Amino acid sequence: MTESDLSKCISTLKETSIDNHDGKNIKYLTQSTLGVIDFDDVKNDYIRNLAISRPPSSNDALFKDESTDEYYFVELRQVASTQSKMLN
């Protein structure tokens, strides 16, 4: 995958945090507009031409800290409301 391929996967943390598992109630796990690479898109692009019966899991996003030139994988999880109150 080239840098040009990755540029097609640029998104926001909000968009990569979408939770629509039930198909009707779309929720975002964060409202952050931080720029990230949608790693599900990277995975899907990578496996597109492979004969895979069950696609692998992937993290939600890849974030590059421009100030340190370090990369971070991001995985967002839904938590129960009682746990959410503890985290806020």
Topology, element by element:
Layout: H1 3-7, E1 10-12, H2 13-16, E2 18-19, E3 27-28, E4 35-38, H3 39-47, E5 61-65, E6 70-74, H4 81-87
Antiparallel strand pairs: 1-4, 2-3, 4-5, 5-6
The computed structural class is alpha+beta
Helix % is: 25-40%
> Spans of 5+ residues with little confidence (pLDDT < 50)?
none
Query: Main sheet?
Result: 4 strands, antiparallel
Number of distinct helices: 4
Q: What strand order characterises the main sheet?
A: 1-4-5-6
Structure in words:
With 88 residues, the protein is of the alpha+beta class. A hairpin with a 4-residue loop joins β5 and β6 (70-74). It has helices at 3-7, 13-16, 39-47, 81-87, and strands at residues 10-12, 18-19, 27-28, 35-38, 61-65, 70-74. The strands form 2 sheets. Strands 1-4-5-6 form a 4-stranded antiparallel beta sheet. The protein has a two-stranded antiparallel ribbon with strand order 2-3. Helix content is 28%, strand content 24%. The model has no long low-confidence stretch (mean pLDDT 85). It has one domain. The protein has 4 helices and 6 strands.
